[in-house]
């Protein structure tokens, strides 16, 4: 008796799959031509499509030809140049790191290039375009080298790569904001340009950077076969004769050259290098880098042009001047990043990131550390009251407390004490929020800012500040709370897939953070595009002009949430271990997580409404507290609160005194102080993972 085996049915073929790689490239090219045609019809003038169509036949008006040559064609070619450069740069970075979330943005390449250009402008250097491109290249190279070194080339886990890139980008943005605040006149217009602007007055940038981009693209295509082999793994590629180290170095260098050229033309247009390769990977029938690299460049052009078209179609032609299209690409990139985070689950070494290992501390040691922190905080408060653009003496402070100072000193100290208290309360709130977030994420490298809570609170507060400039503190706190709650809810719901993965929570939080930052930039440039000082001061965190009533919400949040975290301390201890232990011991995971995250949202929102966006406090203070007193939350929380208050207080005093009468926002100082510590944490994490 014989049996017949039925062949499996042939896989269904889609029209795109039947086209093959060449057909997909031609179809994408046709889509680019169509998008370019639509793009040419948009603008601030009344010149429409029919006027442009009559130009080749000599029937058009001279005004239409002038607008075409002077405005619309340079803008279109800038979009094409930037799209090709960023698309190919993202594809190269993702290939060499074998990481789908690598891009010029997540590796801080664009941030490094932007800082270099802003620094040159701040110091009055009017550089030729070619030298500006070289300067941007050096800045991007330095940033990429740091991030790739910290993340071991991106091969040890997506979470490590994103955290390293986010921290480096935050530090560079803080430096850039500092430069623009201190040199406001010299850097006029750079705030909007910092989100990517296609506004061009001539073709100089495109004609100088275009050949460089084409040469880099040609070099990347020539290296395509070796990049294909590299995708099989380092060992296999080495056996097949590929010098892996050299290939990875040259591919990274090419990607940084492309990203720097794009920044030179239009500023840092966000997340095109992330979106374009992802879209290409979804297209069927496309294989091999010699096909995917040019196709990724075309898709990058589509992303940039479609974003610009959508921006002007929704908000009008003037929006193309006021609002950078990089805001739209960042929003699109945030969506793609969230989708990738939900699809890919990181199981690298950052699943259990290291913390400083210390022996169990005795109760006496804990009390000693806590007392020392309290004494240091008292000293920082005393120093903060003395220091500023006008220094006072200790005796003057005593007389002020007793009501015996003159009018001048009374005015100075009456204005100073709300600032000092705002720094103390905001630092304490952010540290307590960071303690809760790190327990929920089981990641000492996380903080409220990483989960998008801080940026969400910033969106709510800046929206109210723009709509109602004279709004009181309670409406401001409510707006910040609403923004933070919405951001936290979005992150939590998107992170939930039959359970809560700490890696997924962090990655989605970074995506939501990028989206909220883009929305904030859009609100500012639409409402008051020239008032960058207000925007930068708020986004950098400042205690300037604080009033006593503005401190009430933060104080109330601390009174409500700190006892809640203390009550949950044992559950948080178990939650920080793993997913299974607390379940076995009967801990209600989701209620505990929601309570801890809800408390951190309340603390973060009130802190943002009081002093603006201050970063790194929620990262540094809890981690330093664990190093001093051990991992138990009953001891970590009070020490972290004291350290957070101490850090922001010292940062505020330093910012008020180091270049007085000019001031550096406290958030910039904390970012500059926190970045080296964060770099050390990541380097330590990598060293332990390599053992």
Automatic annotation (TrEMBL):
It is a multi-pass membrane protein. SUPFAM superfamilies: ABC transporter involved in vitamin B12 uptake, BtuC. Its main location: membrane. The chain crosses the membrane at residues 20-38, 76-96, 116-149, 161-183, 249-280, 292-315, 327-344, 364-386, 420-441, 448-467, 473-494, 506-527, 547-568, 594-621, 627-650, 662-683. One of its GO terms (biological process) is siderophore-iron import into cell. InterPro entries: ABC_BtuC-like (IPR037294), ABC_transptr_permease_BtuC (IPR000522). It is found in: Cell membrane. GO terms for molecular function: transmembrane transporter activity. Keywords: Cell membrane, Membrane, Transmembrane, Transmembrane helix, Transport. CDD domains: TM_ABC_iron-siderophores_like. GO terms for cellular component: plasma membrane. Belongs to the binding-protein-dependent transport system permease family. FecCD subfamily. This is Iron complex transport system permease protein. It comes from Planomonospora venezuelensis.
